[in-house]
TrEMBL record:
The keyword ATP-binding applies. It catalyses: [L-4-(L-arginin-2-N-yl)aspartate](n) + L-aspartate + ATP = [L-4-(L-arginin-2-N-yl)aspartate](n)-L-aspartate + ADP + phosphate + H(+); [L-4-(L-arginin-2-N-yl)aspartate](n)-L-aspartate + L-arginine + ATP = [L-4-(L-arginin-2-N-yl)aspartate](n+1) + ADP + phosphate + H(+). The keyword Chloroplast does not apply. SUPFAM superfamilies: Glutathione synthetase ATP-binding domain-like (SSF56059), MurD-like peptide ligases, catalytic domain (SSF53623), MurD-like peptide ligases, peptide-binding domain (SSF53244). Pfam families: Cyanophycin_syn, Mur_ligase_C, Mur_ligase_M, RimK. It comes from the Bacteria. Its EC number is 6.3.2.29, 6.3.2.30. Signal peptide: none annotated. Gene3D superfamilies: ATP-grasp fold, A domain, ATP-grasp fold, B domain, Mur ligase, C-terminal domain, Mur-like, catalytic domain. The gene is cphA. Keywords: ATP-binding, Ligase, Nucleotide-binding. This is Cyanophycin synthetase. It comes from Paractinoplanes rhizophilus. Residues 241-497 form the ATP-grasp domain.
Length: 931
């Protein structure tokens, strides 16, 4: 078997609502064979991966996959399940997989879920699939694996041999390193329970919670409003001690030593025992407790570095209290790393057994950290008169650390409910003194349940604050070995998003085959009157508050995240195209409004899309991801769009459906209005809001910019879709009508039906690359100028199927009097001149006497088309890249202000606005449709 392609879908997609990989797997020698054809394969596979017995597969119950395996199934399907099981072995909690035929013998697409917060750049999913492929291949060839070996590899045991087990061990280590730590994971989980969108930054602990101007940032237990001054104070143990001492907070006596002699003098003054620690240390690193001799002071000073704090060691127990936004949310007693004897095992064996606890991992990756036996551990053992080979008595504790940090293998007991109110008040005051919104207060007390005597001058404290921590670890509160788990992640999220906020901004997603860029731009234009700063993505780039910040085809998830992550954005309009949906997934989880403009033949033959039904399936994702209670804006004139409401995943009963269209007699519209619902329609020459029997006029179609007096009815359809979306996001009815009239297409929607003038010749610039778009554009030009007065400079994209290119060529042949054909600079996989040659052949076959010339590039083609035009003619310019085309037209003298002829053979719309009516059926029957 061989993996031929691999792509990562970072958000909800057509396969699953979570991230996934899509791999092209060619079976090669295993093509046409099934598992039942290979003697002993099922038994060897289940011996290696017994967890496969729990896989449901299509049966919907455990054992379903085993039944298929033994009865005979193809090896692509087996590889999918093996990959899922290996994922579970290395701690990636995923369960969704699907294998589908591509239609080509022996080639399958494997769709396998990825953990939602796994870095999008991670190589683990692809590498894991490669291990699954090799493992299946090896087992087919007769290799036997022990389940114990693979289980150990899944745990990341470093001693694994090379081969599948060794690679799996390395992937386990990588996956654990890339995974979010418990603190970050707790915050993410709490945010998602609240419906707050979360985006992780690469493989860091930095996460973005919420969108736009409601966006907040968190880095583990640090928020974007955590004081930098507070962090610096907490990071300097001596400054913290002095600040608290000056405020009357009980703290141990001590001072700074920058030489061994200074450390010795402080020791002599303070008296034993003392603590020696780095002034700016963290997580118990290089801290030495219970220092009682001058030699120990010298050793501890050298171990801690050249800038240390020497403090009197307080008696009692170690506690950590977590303060969030002026509230005590958790308290834990911290217990240093130790093992408990069983009367049979050595200390070394007890350490190994303790470290085998699946809750323990390397560093901060899991809720507990593995105990490391090092020089510090050996010194602690030596003080107890113990060694690694000793066998402690049953129940005897053997300490391996003096510091109680979880990062050195310690554990915790929850004591939140036992904390005395005086201690709680002290901790709140300490956090405020240091200036931290999230703080971990370390205390050494006889008992946290007892009141703490106030500090007195000249008297040694018996308990007090020993440290203050910025970005405190949350693990000890999330998974104490004794006592209640505390949802400290929720406390942090509540502080960041008070009053139940979900951190979202109004968001509309626009998709379809044609018109989506225009609808997105017009929606943003209509919303601008609400006073909100609008973020917009289109095929031409990203704009914030009307200013372009990024130029590119910005219709995919990365561009959506660019807008949603901008703290200046108050509402978002996201053009969402087929390519991004298929290749990367959505850039958001849910939208408030989804708009589907139309669904027609385009891009067929690409990305596995062969039919319009395939295309509708992809576009339906935008409808499926409209939140419950949101608004779905659909084109009533398009049968494929109408069919979307019948798809189970669209869940139309949970959304507000708003239809738009040019035909008010559409049965779906009539039925919709009869229920008192709302639609946006073309009625008696007006764009109207229809609710039940009432018709509220907004603008005459004759006055709609870009509709050319009604000669371009598709412009009216685009406007109606945009009005529906803007109204759903809160735009007022009067402001929408006013903004519609103010829309300036050449400026706000360049390259979409843009009319210019070169002398006595009109130039119509448009981006039409599929049969439906070209037909709509040419119908408009025919109504205004007629066929014989239309000259076209035509290019079509080379990545379209031959039959679609032929259909486009035939439509152009029927709609123009003369044509100049050219190929774009990027042939998209075709040979130079191949597309223009195909188009020329089809056009001549359609109209043998039609003048159709070939040109070398857009400059020659457009220049020749303008030369062929006579006074009063119109030149249609189809382009692939707008900027150079507009620059050339400027060179040729193009300006705005072209005259628009009166539409030939068309009745002008009525000037009387339709009002409220009593009989919707009678009024609908009177509707006059332009074109």
């Amino acid at each position: 078997m061989k993996i031929e392609s691999l792509r990562r879908l970072r958000g909800p997609n057509v396969h699953v609502s979570r991230p996934a990989i899509v791999a092209g797997l060619r079976l090669e020698e295993l093509a046409g064979r099934e598992t039942s054809d290979v003697t002993g394969f099922a038994e060897r596979l289940l011996r290696a991966l017994p967890g496969l017995a729990d896989h449901h597969c299509a049966a919907g119950a455990p054992g379903g996959f085993v039944s298929r395996l033994r009865g005979g199934t193809y090896f692509g399907h087996v590889t999918e399940h093996v990959c899922l099981e290996l994922s579970q072995l290395i701690g990636r909690d995923v369960s969704f997989g699907r294998t589908v035929s591509t239609g080509e013998p022996g080639l399958y697409h494997l769709i396998i879920e990825c953990p939602v917060d796994e870095p999008a750049e991670s190589g683990v999913p692809g590498d894991l699939l490669a291990v699954a492929v090799d493992l299946v291949t090896e087992i087919v060839s007769g290799v036997s694996y022990s389940s114990a070996v693979l289980a150990a590899a899944g745990a990341g045991v470093a001693q694994m041999q090379h081969g599948s087990a060794g690679r799996l061990a390395m992937l386990a280590a990588t996956a654990e390193r890339e995974a979010t730590g418990p603190s970050t994971r707790a915050i993410i989980a709490a945010a998602r329970r609240r419906g707050i969108p979360v985006e992780r930054c690469a493989d860091l602990s930095l996460v973005r919670l919420g969108w736009g101007n409601r966006r907040r940032l968190a880095w583990a237990a640090m928020s974007d409003r955590t004081s930098g001054v507070g962090i610096d104070i907490a990071g300097d143990k001596e400054i913290t001690r002095r600040l608290l001492l000056d405020a009357g907070v009980p703290v141990p006596a001590g001072g700074v030593a920058r030489s061994a002699a200074e450390a010795a003098r402080l020791f002599a003054t303070l008296g034993a025992p003392v603590v020696v620690k780095p002034r700016r240390g963290r997580q118990g690193d290089r801290v030495t407790l219970s220092v009682t001799t001058g030699a120990e002071v010298a050793y501890a000073f050298a171990a801690a570095g050249q800038d240390v704090v020497v403090e009197r060691q307080l008696g009692g127990r170690d506690y950590r209290v977590l303060v969030v936004n002026g509230e005590i949310v958790a308290a834990a007693e911290r217990i240093a790393a130790h093992v408990v004897g069983d009367g049979r095992s050595t200390v070394a064996e007890l350490v190994d057994r303790t470290n085998s606890d699946p809750r323990r991992g390397a560093g901060h990756s899991r809720v507990l950290t593995r105990i490391t036996v090092d020089d510090a551990s050996m010194r602690v053992l030596e003080r107890q008169g113990r060694s690694l080979g000793d066998v402690p008595a049953t129940g005897e504790k053997v300490w391996l650390r003096e510091t109680t940090n979880l990062s050195t293998g310690g554990t915790s007991h929850d004591v939140t409910d036992r904390m005395h109110p005086d201690v709680a008040r002290l901790c709140l005051r300490v956090a405020a003194l240091v200036g931290l919104d999230i703080a971990g207060i370390d205390l050494r007390l006889p008992d946290i349940a007892e009141p703490l005597p106030p500090a007195r001058a000249g008297r040694e404290v018996t308990g007090g604050v020993i440290e203050v921590n910025a970005v405190p670890g949350l693990r000890m509160h999330l998974a104490p070995v004794r006592g209640r788990s505390r949802d400290v992640g929720d406390a942090i999220v509540r502080a960041m998003f008070p009053a139940g906020s979900d951190g979202r901004i109004p968001t509309a997603a626009v998709t379809g085959t044609n018109g989506k860029t225009t609808v997105a731009r017009l929606t943003a234009h209509l919303l601008a009157d609400t006073g909100m700063r609008i973020g917009l993505t289109t095929s031409d780039g990203v704009s914030i508050d009307g200013r372009t910040i990024f130029r590119a085809d910005a219709t995919g998830p990365l561009s959506a995240q660019m807008v949603l992550g901008d703290p200046g954005v108050q509402a978002a309009v996201l053009e969402t195209a087929r390519g991004g949906l298929l290749r990367r997934g959505l850039g958001y989880d849910w939208s408030d409004v989804g708009v589907i403009t139309n669904i027609t033949a385009d891009h067929l033959g690409q990305d596995g899309l062969d039919t319009i039904d395939d295309l509708a399936h992809v576009k339906a994702l935008v409808a499926e991801r409209v939140r419950d209670g949101g608004t779905l804006v659909l084109n009533a004139d398009d049968p494929w769009v109408r069919s979307l409401v019948d798809r189970p995943r669209v869940r139309a009963d949970r959304k507000r459906i708003v239809w738009f269209g040019l035909d008010p007699r559409q049965p779906v519209v009539v039925e919709h209005l009869a229920k008192g619902a709302t639609a946006y329609l073309l009625h008696d020459g007006w764009l109207v809001q229809a609710t039940g029997a009432r018709r509220t006029p907004m603008l005459r179609v004759a006055d709609l910019p870009g509709a050319y007096g009604g000669a371009a009815p598709h412009a009216a359809a685009n406007a109606l879709a945009a009005v529906a979306a803007a109204r759903a996001l809160g735009a007022g009815q009067e402001s929408v009508a006013s903004r519609l009239a103010d829309f300036d297409p050449p400026v706000a929607n360049p390259g979409r039906a843009t009319l210019l003038r070169i002398g006595d010749v009109s130039v119509f610039v448009d981006y039409g690359h599929n049969p439906a778009a070209l037909a709509a554009t040419l119908r408009t030009l025919q109504r205004l100028w007629g066929v014989e007065r239309c000259v076209a400079a035509v290019t079509l994209p080379g990545d379209r199927r031959d039959d679609l290119l032929a259909a486009c060529a035939q439509i152009v042949a029927d709609g123009v009097g003369r044509a100049v054909l050219y190929d774009d600079e990027d042939p998209r996989g075709r040979q130079p001149g191949e597309v223009s040659g195909l188009v020329e052949r089809e056009m001549r076959a359609r109209r043998p006497k039609l003048l159709a010339l070939r040109a070398d590039g857009y400059r020659e083609a457009i220049t020749e088309a303008v030369r062929l035009a006579r006074p009063g003619d119109v030149v249609l310019v189809l382009y692939e890249s707008l900027a150079p085309v507009l620059a050339l037209l400027a060179e040729l003298g193009a300006v705005r202000g072209a005259d628009v002829p009166v539409p030939s053979g068309m009745a002008l719309p009525t000037t009387k606005a339709p009002g409220a009516v009593q009989s919707p059926a009678r009024e609908l029957a009177r509707g006059v449709l332009l074109g």
